Amino acid sequence: MDSNLQASKMHFRTDATCLRMQLRTI
Question: Is the pLDDT of residue 26 over 70?
Fold first, then answer.
């Protein structure tokens, strides 16, 4: 369970980073 939660958190973090990069590009 803990491992799954951590993976989900990492995925969310990556998503946020991608979004930020896109915003910067625009």
Answer: no
Cα separation, 8 vs 22, in Å, equals: 21
User: Across the chain, what does the average pLDDT equal?
Assistant: 82
Domain borders along the chain are 1-26
The DSSP string of the chain is -HHHHHHHHHHHHHHHHHHHHHHHH-
Instruction: Give whole-number Cα distances, 22 to 3, 17, 26, in Å.
Output: 29, 9, 6
The amino acid present at 8, given as its one-letter code, is S
